[in-house]
Every structure is written in C-alpha cells, then in structure tokens.
C-alpha cells in the first residue's frame, strides 16, 4: 500500500485523456489492487475467512445491481460491465484487507498511506501552479494554471485534497502524544496538509471540493471541540488557523496569476447542471422500474432530451459527449430502474448503521471524512475518473468496519477455490500491465499523423481502449472504401456506425456515416441519418449546412493516390473519438 500511495499512484505517462483505464495512473492502480487481492486471499482456503456483517450486507446489496442484466432492454448492457467488474474487484479487495488481520496500529498505518498519497498530490499541485513553465514534461497548461495533480481534472483533485485535509484533522485528534519528537513530526505533517491543501482548494475553484471540505469540517466540530476542551492543545489550534491563512494565500494566487475570472461567477452560475438534473429526473420518472437499460444513458439522454426540447418552446440544446448525469444515484436509476437504486441505498444505510454504533461525535467525524468524495459523487463522477477515490473510500470504510463493526467468521472455501481466486489476482495484474503498454501504443498511433493499420493491429491489449480501437479500425475501413470506391464496404461502415451510436453517440460518427452513405449513392438513407444527428445535436458545427456541403464537395476530389492522412485532411473526416467526460463540466 505504501509503494502504491507514495509512488505508483502518481505515475504520469503520455495519454489521450479520458476517464477510467484511459488514464495510466488508474491502470497502475488496478495492477496494485490485483496484487493486494492476490496476497490477501492467497491462503484463503487454509483457514476460516474473517469478514463482517457490513461486508456480507454489501455483497447482498451488490447482487441487486446485477439484476438489471436480466431485463429485456439489454442491447448495449456490455458497456456497463467495466463498472460492474470494478464493483466486484472492490469487494474482493475489501475482503483481502480483512484477511490481513490488521490491529489498530496497522489500520492507522493504512490511513497514513492515504494521507501520504494526498500529500504527494498536494506537492505536485503546488509545483504545477507555482513552478512549472510552458513546454514542461508533464503537459501542464501554464496559461490555465489549474493544478490538477495526476488527475487531469480540477474537481477530482479538489475532492481528493479536501478528503486528505479532513483526514489529517481526524488523525491528529486521535494521535498519541508520546514519544514527543515523533508526535511533533506528525503534527508538522498534518499542519502542512491543512495549510497547503487550503491553498489548493481555493486555486482549483471547485465548488464540489469546497462544499465537501466545508461539510467535512463542520461534521468534525463536535469531536474537535471535545478534544480542545479536554487537552487545550495550542499546537492544534494554531494549525487549524493555517486553513484560513491558506485560503488568503490562495485568493492572492488567483489575483497574482489573473485567475479571478472564475472565482465569483462559479458560485452564482449553475453551469447547466439544473437542466441536466431536471431532465435526468424526467427520464427516471418516465421509466422508474426497469430503466432504459444498462450502458444506454448517453444515447437515451440525448434521444429523450431532443423529444422534450421539441415539445417545449424555448428549450436550449445541451452540450455533447455527456456520458453521466453528474449524480451517481441518478445514473443507476436511469439505466437500471428501482432495483439498483435500492441496492445503492442499502449500501448507504449499511455505512450509516455501522457509524451508529459509535458515540455521536465520533460517528459525525467519520461521516465528515467521507463527505468530500460523497458530495463529489452527487455532482460528478469521481469513481469513473479516479481509482484513488474508489480505493480511498474502500480503505476508510474498512478501517471503520474493522474497528467498530461486527465480525463474522466463515468456513474456509474449498481447496479448489484457491485457483480461481489466484487466477483473478494474476489476471488483473497481467491485464493491467499489458493495458499500460497498449495505452502507450495507442497514444503514439493517435499522435502520429503518418500512422498505419499495422500500428493499430500491433496494440497488444485493445480491450482497455475497446471503443476507441473499434472506432479506429472502422475508420481505416472507411478510408479504404472511399479510396477504392467500394460500395459494399461503405455500407458496412454505415451499418457499424449506426450500431455504435446506440451506446456511444458522437456527432462525428454520424457525420462520417452520412458521407459514406452519400458516396455509396444511398442518398435517402444519408439524409435520414443526417436529420437524426441534427435533431440530437442542433448546436454542433460539424453538422451545419456549410460543413456538410464542404464535405460532400470534397468527396468528388478523392483520388486513389491519396494517403490516409491526406484523405482525412481533404474532406475532412472525424478521426479522433473523444471520450464522454461530462461535456463542459
């Protein structure tokens, strides 16, 4: 855990941006989760399994999240498999931690590891904002100056830092005062996290991060006052004053680097979230029991919003490429209906029930530690963007469960189970190791204008970037068909594109399919597809009359001697599938 939180979590490699396994630090994180799971469960067949009522209840609640795969609306349900496998991997990782039989000191070291991860990210963020210059190796944009650490996104960085700040105070309140020199060093560490973290939370200008931090600090107040009244710790009180001092320094940094443009408007502008939440609620109420089907949110959202917009005078179109409703409960309710929503609610109740066993001040403090990430999950999608957020929640809940929960001993699984469990851990590690290399292969392919089909075929693990690899392969099919005037291949590309947009609707894919149908002579079908695309995305310039006319005119200038890159530039084609990262938010 220390190797991961101090080193591997902060790995930066060139990439094509996105979420999940499209980011190298997430791939490396899953490698370590596979390793920890393998080590923790390696001898599970030799002795009774130690677990808890909380874990058993969570497993039963998780089964509810799998039930929608049995529904009849599962045409694109495979798109939801990555998050379902992530849930299963999280449960096994949690069970592996339980088998380690950590005592109170061992569990505290796990929390130190989490705080160490936050500390490294804070250091990285400070370097990004105050030190890095244009053209840096990290690819950090010094004009925007949003110190996002390894996460590539301001809100994800902010909720991570906010969680670390609340955790630092919690650890301080439970820190042994002896030996004195060791306590002094830890006090300096905690103080540094509070002061520097406050600076970053201001610089990041993230409403989700700031709200999560405020709520976390508010929930810590009862325990904090109890400790101050009992111990009268001047050092703790002085360190808490570093938070407002850090805020002042952060505001100064915003003005000094001309970043104050966003600082006031973000607190009064909803950024379109009201429209997103309002329509997401309409979708849920439209199909509250079975939902629209796993994996279909993005497509269903734009289809239903287009219908609603046509019936509502004055309604404005939304941003494109939005694959999440910016609320975790809404995502599961829209795609799976009532049953998975019930599963999530049960998990939440299980956490609260666990904390009800504590004195009220302790229980509120633990809720405060979890608050920044929970608030973020209700306003965006941190668990899909950042594995460290998922791991942090698992470790925090494990520590609470191990300290205050009700333990259960299960009979050891049969000896035959050791091989599937070991195969799972080894399989995750091999998949992620090959996926890390495959990501670099695909990044080089996408950034090289003279790329070839051979480079794409050489990607050793296309499943990590499955949708993008599929897009690139069919893009080569389209290029070959246009150069050779192969009507059958053009129609085959259009058929694939219409299947693809059922789960990953992109205006550019519609545009390419329209050109393919038009060049193949299927004008009626091409116009029908174009009308469908414009209905979904009325504000996309690629689909306006001028762009369409330019593309059709350039089709007539195609000659067989053109290269792939020349053909892309001549028409031009849509040749880079952008991930759905939440539109402009």
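-> sequence recovered:
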């Amino acid at each position: 855990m220390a190797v991961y939180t101090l080193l591997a979590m902060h790995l930066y490699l060139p990439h094509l941006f996105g979420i999940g396994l499209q980011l190298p630090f997430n791939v490396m994180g899953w490698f370590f989760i596979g390793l920890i799971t393998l080590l923790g469960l390696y001898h599970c067949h030799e002795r009774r399994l130690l677990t808890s009522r909380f874990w058993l209840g969570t497993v039963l609640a998780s089964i509810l999240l799998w039930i929608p795969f049995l529904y009849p609306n599962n045409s694109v349900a495979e798109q939801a498999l990555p998050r379902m496998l992530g849930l299963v991997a999280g449960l096994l990782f949690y069970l592996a931690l339980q088998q380690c039989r950590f005592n109170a000191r061992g569990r505290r070291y796990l929390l130190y590891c989490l705080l160490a991860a936050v500390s490294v990210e804070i250091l990285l963020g400070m370097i990004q904002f105050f030190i890095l210059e244009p053209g840096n190796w990290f690819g950090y944009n010094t004009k925007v100056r949003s110190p996002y650490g390894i996460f590539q996104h301001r809100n994800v960085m902010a909720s991570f830092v906010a969680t670390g700040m609340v955790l630092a105070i919690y650890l301080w309140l439970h820190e042994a005062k002896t030996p004195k020199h060791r306590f002094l060093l830890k006090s300096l560490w905690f103080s540094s996290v509070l002061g520097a973290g406050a600076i970053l939370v201001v610089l990041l200008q993230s409403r989700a991060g700031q709200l999560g931090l405020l709520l976390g600090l508010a929930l810590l107040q009862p325990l904090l006052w109890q400790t101050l009244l009992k111990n009268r710790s001047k050092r703790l009180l002085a360190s808490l004053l570093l938070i407002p001092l850090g805020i002042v320094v952060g505001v100064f940094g915003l003005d000094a680097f001309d970043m104050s443009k966003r600082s006031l408007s973000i607190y009064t502008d909803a950024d379109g979230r009201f429209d997103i939440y309002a329509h997401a609620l309409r979708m849920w109420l439209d199909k509250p029991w079975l939902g629209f089907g796993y994996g279909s949110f993005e497509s269903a959202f734009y289809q239903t919003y287009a219908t609603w917009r046509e019936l509502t005078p004055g309604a404005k179109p939304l941003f494109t490429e939005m694959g999440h409703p910016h609320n975790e409960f809404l995502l599961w309710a829209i795609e799976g209906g009532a049953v998975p929503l019930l599963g999530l609610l049960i998990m939440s109740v299980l956490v609260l029930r666990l904390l009800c066993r504590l004195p009220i001040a302790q229980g509120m403090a633990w809720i405060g530690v979890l608050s920044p990430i929970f608030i973020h999950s209700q306003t965006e999608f941190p668990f899909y963007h950042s594995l460290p957020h998922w791991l942090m929640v698992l470790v925090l809940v494990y520590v609470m469960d191990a300290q205050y929960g009700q333990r259960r001993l299960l009979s050891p699984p049969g000896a035959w189970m050791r091989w599937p469990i070991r195969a799972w851990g080894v399989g995750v590690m091999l998949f992620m190791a090959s996926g890390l290399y495959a990501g670099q292969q695909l990044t080089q392919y996408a950034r090289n204008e003279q790329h070839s089909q051979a480079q794409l075929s050489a990607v050793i693990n296309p499943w990590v970037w499955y949708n993008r690899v599929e897009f690139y392969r069919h893009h080569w099919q389209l290029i070959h068909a246009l150069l050779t005037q192969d009507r059958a291949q053009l129609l085959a590309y259009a058929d694939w594109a219409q299947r693809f947009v059922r789960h990953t609707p992109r205006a550019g894919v519609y545009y390419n399919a329209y050109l393919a149908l038009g060049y193949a002579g299927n004008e009626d079908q091409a116009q029908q597809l174009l009308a469908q695309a414009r209905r979904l995305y009325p504000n996309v310039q690629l689909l306006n009359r001028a762009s369409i006319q330019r593309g059709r005119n350039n089709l007539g200038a195609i000659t067989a001697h053109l290269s792939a890159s020349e053909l892309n530039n001549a028409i031009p084609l849509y040749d880079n599938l952008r991930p759905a990262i939440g539109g402009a938010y």
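The chain is about 65% helix and 0% strand.
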